[in-house]
Amino acid sequence: MAYKNVVLVGAGNIGRIILRGLEDSSQFNITVLSRKESSAVFPDSVNVWKTDYSKSDLEAAFTGQDVVISALGALGFTEQRKLVDAAVQSGVKRFLPSEFSCNSQNGTVIELLPLFQQKADIIQYLKSKESTGLTWTSLVTSLLFDWGLENGFLGYDISSRTATIWDDGNKKFTLTNEGHLSKAVVSVLQRPNETKNQILYIASVETSQNEILNAFETVTGCKWSIIRTTTEEQVTEARMKLSKGDFDGALTLVRATSYSNLPGLKSNYAKGFKVANDILGLEWANVEDTVRTVVSK
């Protein structure tokens, strides 16, 4: 039986995408967990529970809920164990940890982003709680494609028609569109038996930096300027920035989880893993169509 009562924890970029999908499906009673001091505003259609993240308050918030979805950002990764414990005590049936990004099970990803070890640890903690009746699903999306094109995160500056290309630009990787992420979450909740206690890899496109660049040049009807760089240059500079307290370095290392040529980095989920698109009813997207949609905004 599909789940009905859902708590979403975290209202940042990922949380907003997931919330939109849950709302659009019109199938769930949605509660958003928000810190007491937060000024975030939510749609009238959702319940808002202001919390201090204490044990008793979390358990009260989760009572009567079927699912807890954690979309906490990096600063909230350490809170997830408390969420799991409260979910167990409150009889929650399914927990989705704050994955929704690059693969925390990959050693090279952990070397680039040591903070992601906390994500990997939560998966192990969830496995240890299976005997209590709490099930879990981890959704691994890699980086967000349309979101990262629109805001320039992926290195394509639409206004200046400039692309930053790592190495030769031909390395293949997978990326996921916002709509596929939100649909995947809904599909997991609709398919509890097929998705329980699993790490599911999803993707919208299997592509390369050069293929994305070609799509931009086709859609915009002009040649783009290219800034050439290498994995070594990007990773070295990023680590230097981080050592000086510059968080921009971390953003570069996130990009490196898709673009870099570091050994052992399995960033093409279509080749390295069994992609769960079929299980979740997700169709593959077209790179040029996605670029066209982004440019038209």
Automatic annotation (TrEMBL):
It is an enzyme of class 1 (oxidoreductase). InterPro entries: NAD(P)-bd_dom_sf (IPR036291), NmrA-like (IPR008030), NmrA/Isoflavone_reductase-like (IPR051609), PCBER-like (IPR045312). GO terms for molecular function: oxidoreductase activity. Keywords: NADP, Oxidoreductase. The keyword Flavoprotein does not apply. Residues 7-228 form the NmrA-like domain. It comes from the Eukaryota. Its EC number is 1.3.1.-. Pfam families: NmrA. This is NmrA-like family protein.
